Amino acid sequence: MASVETKSWSSPDDTMTPDKTHAATINFGAVTLTKGNMQPGWKWSECIKPHVGTDSCQAGHVGVLLQGQIHVLSDDGSEVTVKAGDAYCLAPGHDAWVVGEEPALAVEFSMDDKDFGPWLIPK
User: What pTM was computed for the model?
Assistant: First the structure.
């Protein structure tokens, strides 16, 4: 990787567009940034689960919610509502959904050598 590098969200390295979802990914060596836009009515168990085949999301997430609200329910029963401006760290094993009528916009960070995989798909 160069000592200084920039990339644009307008030409990401990868995109995914499951139902009510647009996720764009940019790679910088071992570091991955993913910008996810989830529309009102988005729910992981309805929009993403059919593509990954697990009962709950098995990816971990570290990120910042820039817009909207997302409610997260972990397999262990704990839950939280993430609001715009909140940073978050979610362990694998959860469902999540957009709260209200405003789209949710998040940027998440991951590293190849961690248990935290790409934004939607378990590692």
Answer: 0.86
